[in-house]
Amino acid sequence: MDERGPLCVGIDPHAALLADWGLGDDIAGLERFTRTVVEALADRVAVLKPQSAFFERFGSRGVAVLERAVAESRDAGALVVMDAKRGDIGSTMAAYADAYLDPSSPLFSDALTVSPYLGFGSLRPALDRARAAGCGLFVLALTSNPEGAEVQHAVRGGGRTVAATVLRHLAAENAGEAPLGSFGAVVGATLGGTLNELGVDLDMGGALLAPGIGAQGATAGDLPGVFGPAVGNVLPSISRGVLRHGPSPAALREAAAREAGLMAETVA
Ligand SMILES: O=c1ccn([C@@H]2O[C@H](COP(=O)(O)O)[C@@H](O)[C@H]2O)c(=O)[nH]1
Question: What is the 3-state secondary structure (H, E, C) of the chain?
Answer without folding.
Answer: CCCCCCCEEEECCCHHHHHHCCCCCCHHHHHHHHHHHHHHHCCCCCEEEEEHHHHHCCHHHHHHHHHHHHHHHHHCCCEEEEEEEECCCHHHHHHHHHHHHCCCCCCCCCEEEECCCCCHHHHHHHHHHHHHHCCEEEEEEECCCHHHHHHHCCECCCCCEHHHHHHHHHHHHHCCCCCCCCEEEEECCCCCCHHHHHCCCCCCCCCEEECCECCCCECHHHHHHHHHHHHHHEEEEECHHHHCCCCCHHHHHHHHHHHHHHHHHHHC
